[in-house]
């Protein structure tokens, strides 16, 4: 084994006479351990864009000839096409994406290929690739989140004044508008978008020109590279730039919070679609039957979103743990930044697709939810407020309603069915108008900013629509 490890096979494909080529491309049985091509190839577009910009900059600065730059660019365009058309000869022996592309470039254009890596290292190269990719993914995610928000607004508008039971401790608590409930998720996703926007801002920093760690010994133009690649600014410290993966951690943290929101919503969809709740019916395509129980409509998509949240948390933990012991600057551990990042990005983007498709087809059982919202125990707070309206201190009113609720429970009658004389036994403040208290009046009474009164909810809905209008499908 050891012998195999040290002998290996040699792959010579770059300009002969460069000794580093030999060590870099020696292949051994253990080389599988270091290979990243299986997953980093998905950065090919960003890698090629970075190389094209780099070649252009090198020529502009007279570091390489215009002719070499033109050949390099042409070769890279061919490579991009080959990859897109799945004709590219990926070779695991070449370890990673960068080496695969450089080697192919050498095959295609010969000696000029060897000039591309002037004033560059794979360390700043991979950093630029990942930043470019992360920026794109975050824009995609923002778009998906906007889509989910707009589905929520559509649902809220469709059932705008329907009351439903609101819960605390998963016990029925007070009536709320269904639209208010949907708008709660709108708020969560609004914050998620803010987190991705924030992360995007810190990712939008161009690291090329940092070289391996210390900068490069050529008069490069980093601002030019930033402009070419669509970055807002350049990194300020080469050592930081090649070893910083904060943006990946931030991305994973934002993705974790966002998945947590989807997971909570999923939990509600699971509960609501059970026969016990019977609040909603999900479209057939988002439920599955059971192979044995014909009556089943399992909410698998919501369950899976809830379940997949765990793996995104895992991606975050893996990343934080991988980073915590690394001395400056680049360490090969950093290659492990990609799979968790891609996994979280894929999990979140597919979850966004699912929810954008699933939410519009969700049918609310209006009768059921408003019926339950009107059940007497839901209105106990309102009856206490009623007594307060007649001059009683709230604490006292609360105590009376506690007894009254218990009284109704014991006799298995609703508050609405209790005769006025019975009410009077608890307080002579009770009059006929106690029967005017309904789920609707209860919701309408919560007429303060952020409350569930129909007017407030209508205004919140309007506000939310405006936010979407301004944002379009971006941040
Ligand atoms: N495949 C490597 C990574 O993803 C590229 C950078 C390699 N740099 C190095 N010094 N070996 O991190």
What secondary-structure arrangement, pairings included, does this model have?
Layout (H helix, E strand, L loop, with lengths): L1 H6 L11 H7 L11 H4 L3 H17 L5 H19 L12 H13 L12 H37 L4 E6 L2 E7 H26 L1 E2 L15 H8 L3 E2 L3 H6 L2 H27 L7 E2 L18 H25 L13 H21 L4 E2 L1 H8 L6 H10 L4 H18 L8 H7 L12 H7 L8 H18 L4
Helix pairs in contact: 4-5, 4-7, 4-9, 5-6, 7-8, 7-13, 7-19, 8-11, 8-19, 11-12, 11-13, 12-13, 15-16
The structure holds arginine.
Strand content: under 5%
Rg value? 31 Å
Q: Could you say how many structural domains there are in total? A: 3
Rounded to the nearest angstrom, the distance between the terminal CA atoms is 54 Å
Q: Characterize the largest beta sheet: strand count, sense, and whether it forms a barrel.
A: 2 strands, antiparallel
Oligomer: single chain
Whole-number mean pLDDT: 93
Structural class: mainly alpha
User: What is the string of helix and strand elements?
Assistant: HHHHHHHEEHEHEHHEHHEHHHHHH
Overview of the structural elements:
The protein is mainly alpha-helical and 475 residues long. It has three domains: 3-115, Orthogonal Bundle (Fumarase C, Chain B, domain 1); 122-167 and 177-219 and 233-370, Fumarase/aspartase (Central domain) (Fumarase C, Chain A, domain 2); 372-471, Fumarase/aspartase (C-terminal domain) (Ribonucleotide Reductase Protein R1, domain 1), CATH 1.10.40. The chain contains 19 helices and six strands. The chain has helices at residues 2-7, 19-25, 37-40, 44-60, 66-84, 97-109, 122-158, 178-203, 222-229, 238-243, 246-272, 300-324, 338-358, 366-373, 380-389, 394-411, 420-426, 439-445, 454-471; strands at residues 163-168, 171-177, 205-206, 233-234, 280-281, 363-364. Strands 1-2 form a two-stranded antiparallel ribbon. Helix 4 (44-60) packs antiparallel against helix 5, helix 7 runs antiparallel to helix 19 and helix 8 (178-203) runs antiparallel to helix 11 (246-272). The longest helix has 37 residues, at 122-158. The protein is elongated and about 100 Å long. 40% of the residues are buried. Mean pLDDT is 93; it is low at 1-23. It binds arginine.
């Amino acid at each position: 084994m050891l012998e195999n490890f040290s002998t290996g096979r040699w792959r010579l494909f770059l300009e002969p006479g460069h000794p580093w080529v030999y060590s870099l491309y020696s292949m051994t049985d253990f080389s599988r351990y270091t290979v990243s091509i299986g997953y980093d190839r998905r950065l090919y577009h960003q890698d090629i864009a970075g190389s094209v910009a780099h070649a252009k900059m090198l020529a502009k600065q007279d570091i390489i000839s215009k002719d070499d730059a033109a050949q390099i660019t042409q070769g890279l365009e061919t490579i991009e096409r080959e990859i897109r058309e799945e004709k590219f000869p990926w070779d695991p022996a070449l370890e990673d994406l960068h080496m695969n592309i450089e080697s192919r470039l050498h095959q295609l254009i010969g000696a000029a290929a060897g000039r591309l890596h002037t004033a560059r290292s794979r360390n700043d190269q991979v950093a630029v690739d990942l930043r470019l990719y992360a920026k794109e993914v975050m824009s995609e995610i923002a778009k998906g989140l906007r889509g989910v928000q707009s589905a929520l607004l559509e649902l809220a508008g469709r059932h705008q004044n329907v009351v439903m039971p609101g819960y605390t401790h998963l016990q029925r608590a007070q009536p709320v508008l269904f639209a208010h409930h949907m708008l709660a998720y709108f708020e969560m996703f609004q914050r998620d978008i803010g987190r991705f926007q924030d992360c995007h801002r810190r990712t939008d920093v161009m690291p090329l020109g940092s070289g391996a760690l210390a900068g490069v010994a050529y008069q490069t133009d980093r601002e030019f590279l930033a402009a070419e690649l669509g970055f807002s600014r350049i990194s300020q410290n080469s050592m930081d730039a090649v070893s910083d993966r904060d943006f990946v951690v931030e991305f994973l943290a934002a993705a974790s919070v966002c998945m947590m929101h989807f997971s909570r919503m999923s939990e509600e969809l699971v509960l609501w679609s059970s026969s016990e709740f019977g609040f909603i019916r999900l479209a057939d395509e988002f439920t599955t039957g059971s192979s044995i129980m014909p009556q089943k409509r399992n909410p698998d998509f919501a369950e899976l979103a809830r379940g997949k949240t765990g793996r995104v948390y895992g991606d975050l933990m893996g990343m934080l743990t991988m980073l915590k012991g690394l001395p400056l600057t680049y360490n090969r551990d950093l290659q492990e930044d990609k799979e968790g990042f891609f996994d979280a990005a894929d999990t979140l983007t597919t979850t966004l697709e699912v929810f954008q498709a699933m939410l519009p087809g969700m049918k609310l059982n209006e009768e059921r939810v408003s019926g339950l919202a009107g059940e007497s125990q839901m209105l106990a707070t309102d009856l206490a407020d009623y007594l307060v309206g007649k001059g009683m201190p709230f604490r006292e009113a609360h105590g009376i309603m506690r007894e009254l609720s218990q009284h109704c429970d014991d006799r298995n009658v609703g508050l609405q069915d209790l005769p006025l004389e019975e009410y009077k036994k608890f307080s002579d403040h009770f009059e006929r108008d106690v029967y005017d208290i309904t789920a609707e009046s209860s919701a309408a009474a919560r007429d303060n900013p952020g409350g569930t009164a129909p007017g407030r909810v209508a205004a919140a809905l309007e506000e939310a629509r405006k936010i979407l209008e301004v944002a379009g499908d971006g941040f």
